[in-house]
Specification:
With 298 residues, the protein is mainly alpha-helical. It has helices at 2-6, 10-20, 22-32, 46-51, 53-77, 88-95, 106-110, 113-142, 147-172, 177-197, 201-213, 218-230, 232-264, 268-286.
Length: 298
């Protein structure tokens, strides 16, 4: 995507990245509706009842392998057309005389505040996504919902996110991306607090539907904002560093969800922390600059 589209039109590229993330929602939504991720609830779920949780997970892994590996090999061998960086948007800009923009090195970029602001936001994103996937169903069951309703509620988030991602992709090409990212984090953070207090099925499903509208898009928007601020040359490596933080957040939430429940007998420790982290990330996202940062003098 970086090679093909960021040089052509960064605005369009951010929308395309957001739209592509709906593919991940296609796997989360329909698959998660009948199958809870937590293996302890397999007896009440359709696929696990029919084939057993081991066969279900092996089948899911085989499907991912058959789809993902050929796609990755195809993309890695693909080459962007010559002159991609001079497609309409950039060609017009190149034709107009302008002062050369200062070139940031990787070291300079890592010393600027905007990178670490995005870095922290992706930590909150990874923390929340993995927490819900790992402990969402057990938390809802602990609050009185049966296994099927709990998995339906979590699965509904992924299903609605398919359509929410399409809307966010369109908006990212028209509205300030920092504002959209802040809205995603903010609504998602409030959604975590709401999930902790829902008491009826309709409250669960309404909360899940609203949360699904903003469940996706933060990763693609973060990548696009990095491209806006640091240019195409650095976006790959900077996004790679930031995504490691996303995964570290996911690792921490999986552990904290279990430890917090065993230690304090409540899911509020992990889920409350997720809501607070996301609200903080929303505030930070609003402070992101719209212009490329200047290198910090050595």
């Amino acid at each position: 995507m970086t090679r093909w589209y960021f040089g052509w039109n960064i605005v369009a590229a951010s929308a395309l990245l957001t739209l592509l993330s709906s593919g991940m929602r296609l796997s989360i939504g329909p698959f998660f509706l009948p199958i809870a991720q937590d293996l302890g609830f397999s007896r009440s779920l359709l696929a696990s009842e029919a084939f057993g949780w081991r066969a279900t997970l092996v089948g899911f892994a085989a499907t991912l392998t058959l789809v993902a590996i050929p796609a990755a090999l195809f993309i890695m061998r693909d080459q962007a057309p010559e002159g991609t960086d001079l497609r309409p948007t950039n060609a017009t800009a190149a034709a107009a005389p302008a002062a050369p923009a200062p070139v940031l090195s990787l070291r300079d970029a890592l010393r600027t505040a905007p990178f670490w602001m995005i870095f922290g936001g992706l930590f909150a994103c990874g923390y929340s996504m993995n927490l819900l996937g790992t402990h969402g169903v057990p938390m809802l069951m602990d609050h009185g919902f049966d296994a099927h309703s709990s998995s339906m509620g979590i699965g509904l988030i992924g299903f609605v996110a398919i359509f929410g991602t399409l809307v966010l992709g369109r908006w990212s090409a028209r509205l300030p991306r920092c504002n959209i990212l802040a809205a995603i984090y903010g609504v998602r953070g409030l959604g975590f607090f709401a999930l902790m207090i829902v008491g009826t099925h309709w409250e669960l499903y309404v909360t899940a539907s609203i949360g699904g509208l903003v469940w996706a898009g933060s990763i693609a928007l973060s990548s696009a904002i990095l491209a806006d601020l640091y240019g195409v040359r650095l976006v790959g490596v900077l996004y790679g560093f930031a995504y490691v933080d996303h995964q570290l957040g996911g690792m921490l939430s999986a552990w904290l969800g279990g430890w917090g429940y065993e230690r304090f007998g409540t899911h509020w420790v992990a889920f409350g922390a997720s809501g607070a982290l996301l609200l903080a990330a929303a505030v930070v996202a609003l402070q992101l600059p719209t212009r490329r940062p200047v290198a910090v003098p050595a």
